[in-house]
Amino acid sequence: MSIHPFSNEKSNDWKKGERNAELQQAFASIREQFSTTYPLYINGEEIYTGNKVPSYNPSNHEQVLGYVSQAGKHEVEKAIDSAEKAFEEWRLQSFKDRAMYLLKAAEMMRKRKAELVAWQIYEAGKNYNEADGEILEAIDFLEMYARKAIALGEEQSVNTLPGIENRFEYLPLGVGVIIPPWNFPLAILTGMTASAIVTGNTVLIKPSTVTPVTGYKFMEIMQEINLPNGVVNFVPGSSREIGDFMVGHKDVNFISFTGSKEVGLRIDEIAHQRIKGQRWMKRVISEMGGKNAVVVDETADLDAAAEAIVTSAFGFQGQKCSAGSRAIIHERVYDALVAKIVERSETLKVGNTLENPDLGPVIDEKAYNNIVDYIEVGKEEASLALGGTSDNRTGYYIEPTIFKDVSPEARIMKEEIFGPVLAICKVSNFEEGIRVYNNTEYGLTGALFTKDRKRMDYARKHMRCGNLFFNGKSTGAIVGVQPFGGYYMSGTGAKTGTGEYLLNFVQAKVTSEKL
After folding, report:
1. Is the domain of 372 the same as that of 477?
2. 450-467: buried (b, 16+ CB within 10 Å) or exposed (e) per residue?
3. Strand 164-172 relative to strand 60-69, pairing
């Protein structure tokens, strides 16, 4: 297989023509699979357990998409043992040889695009555009990490001395645990797994309990490319039963996690408690939440700002860690911009994602109840400008909700809600807007609308976030174009989609030979 220069995968329009016909056929095929039970996958073996849980369609929460076998501690022990044994051979393969598996996986994903997009729509509640973006990102991760790994495997430059030959190389860590989120159950799972295995590690994947079938579809691709047995093991299961056990296991070298702040902090705490027989300090690569905002000054293009704020707040029902759930607006343009935001949001349609609405359902009952509770908090803290209604009779639907005149200290301005709720705050000057932006414990994404380049420079220095966008939305970072990741309570700062990210999964070794 020839390796051409990296380029981002091109998007598809699934609403019409040949692509729509493919998607409708994929929907029909998935409906025929609703009764399927999915196994664990350990050391190349499919394992069905007596404990299985259903995966539901959030657009129609009585509809079971499939049943997924659940791992217990016994199966986790077996998976770790298999990963350890596979590691001894896998680590000796060259970076290039391992990269070729990723490129094969990317080709397989391209062939299965319609099916994988359809699963996103059914299981994650994404509309066509959001589901397409997910498959594009997954393919980009495979293509990008393959190329970056090949470069990492090349001889690294070090200084030398007369009579001494030095060699600097990167070696894998060992066995890792991959814990992806439900909101990007294919793309982030792919990126987390690909980066770990291409650098020579072996892994256990514990998919989200609400999107496990999509996780198994990724596992099918790992089988189809003939990845050696034990390199990737699939162990869905209860976080309460196996989560802490996996993270704290003495033979696990690293944990790669994307999800909530609460779970991420617990993982970090458990991972850094050394137990008997553990020979290494575990690494934790963590991407958690965000309370991101779009800041707008008095010089901004208000139409562009309104469009970006609405997209950032309500894209995928606000269920992105990068979602712009706050708008911080200069008082001179406040009323005019709020009116534009409300006007645009009023046109958004909410419904079953099979019908490709602007917004689909939130993911499950727990999320639904949490968001509804926050809406009630918002009604006490601020003025309701739009929405505030919800309906869970058939699916978990919440209307786009906007609160205005929100205090910087309000809960809905500082706490992550992870739903279609936007809090709007008025400020008297630009510097105050930046201070309000920084008034959370997170540091993931931010956006600034201004025509003043000096203010852009000020924002670079003072807005505390890992990804900052000028005159654009706070969501939609593209692999290789806008490396993604934050810090503070948003994570450990690792930037995905870069060669630098691969360094999280390797350790350096220097060999010196006296000639």
Report:
1. yes
2. beeeebeebbeeebbbbb
3. unpaired
Q: How far apart are CA 495 and CA 487, in angstroms?
A: 10
Query: pLDDT tens, 377-403?
Result: 999 999 999 999 999 999 999 999 999
The H-or-E segment that residue 38 falls in is strand 37-38
Domain contains 199 = yes
Record the tokens describing residue 18, joined without a space. 């040949």
CB 172 within 8 A of CB 506: yes
Residues 27-68: pLDDT tens digits? 999 999 998 999 999 999 999 999 999 999 999 999 999 999
Same domain, 181 and 284: yes
Give one DSSP letter per residue of 429-478, joined into a string: SHHHHHHHHT-SSEESEEEEE-S-HHHHHHHHHH---SEEEESS-S----
The per-residue pLDDT for 161 is 86
Q: Do 167 and 72 share a domain, yes or no? A: yes
Show the domain range for 309.
Answer: 292-483
Residues taking part in catalysis = 287, 321
Q: Is the pTM of this model over 0.85?
A: yes
For the chain, the domain total comes to: 2
The one-letter amino acid code at 336 reads A
Residue bearing tokens 């029909």: 28
Which helix (H) or strand (E) element contains residue 89? helix 73-90
Do 39 and 117 have their domain in common?
A: yes
Residue 185 sits in the same domain as residue 310 = no
Cβ pair 336, 306 in contact under 8 A? no
- The closest of 217, 276, 211, 267 to 242, measured between CA atoms, is 267
